[in-house]
Amino acid sequence: MYLVKTPWLLKKLYPQLTWDAKPCDKCIYLTFDDGPIPIVTPFVLNILQQYNAKATFFCIGDNVNKHPDVFQQVKDAGHAIGNHTYNHLKGWNTKDQTYLENFMEADKLIDSTLFRPPYGRVKRSQAKLLKEAKSGLKLIMWNILSADFDINLSPEKCLDNVIKYTTAGDIVLFHDSLKAFDRLEYALPNAMEYWSKEGFTFKSLSEP
Ligand SMILES: [Zn+2]
């Protein structure tokens, strides 16, 4: 079960997490989780370049370790990078110390003050530990979940969801993963074409 649009109640319950980016007139903050990997990440980079777009990639440390060349392509293209733990740990099921160590392991490869907890699940105690370990760390959530990971969702429906709910200043979550690719491959270029015609621009979360 998931919701495309993050409800305000959830935002109130977790004030230590960032659910909204800086307000902007006509911009969208695209984010991509779980890469970097061959084929899918370069596909995303190519689409972003076509729209002169900047985005934010929340990378899994293990993938950065396996695919340093793809990671370098993301950085060379001027996108922001963020930490997404080393092994994609689910915070609620993980001991605090283990969670911190996994974050720090990824931090050696992905030096960033942006962090997105895998599955959006992190304990308050873990959020606190991470912020103590890395000064200036921001835990970034999202406003719009594309649900591109849902293999029962058609690519067309995935596109409809993101277009229907996204408004200016929203953080939109996609995945540069093999599991999401069937939907991402269709929804991302079509959504960006639609938003561009509507006059939106695309920013990374590290831009002023
Ligand atoms: Zn993830």
Summarize the structure.
The protein is α/β, with parallel strands linked by helices and 208 residues long.
Q: How would you describe what is shown here?
A:
This protein starts with 7 loop residues before the first helix and ends in a 6-residue tail after the last strand. The mean pLDDT is 93. Strands 1, 2, 3, 6, 7 and 8 form a 6-stranded parallel β-sheet that branches. A two-stranded parallel ribbon has the order 4-5. The chain contains 8 helices and 8 strands. The longest helix has 17 residues. The chain has 208 residues and is an alpha/beta fold. It binds zinc ion. Zinc ion (ZN) binds next to loops.
What class do helices, strands and sheet pairing give?
alpha/beta
> What does the average pLDDT come to?
93
Q: Kindly state the number of beta strands.
A: 8
Integer count of domains: 1
Q: How far apart lie the N and C ends? A: 34 Å
Low-confidence sequence ranges: none
Features:
single chain, 208 residues, TIM Barrel, 6-stranded parallel β-sheet, two-stranded parallel ribbon, 8 helices, globular, binds zinc ion
Topology:
Blueprint lengths: L7 H6 L13 E7 L6 H11 L5 E4 L1 H6 L1 H9 L3 E4 L12 H14 L4 E2 L8 H10 L4 E2 L4 E2 L9 H11 L5 E5 L5 H17 L3 E2 L6
Parallel strand pairs: 1-2, 1-7, 1-8, 2-3, 4-5, 6-7
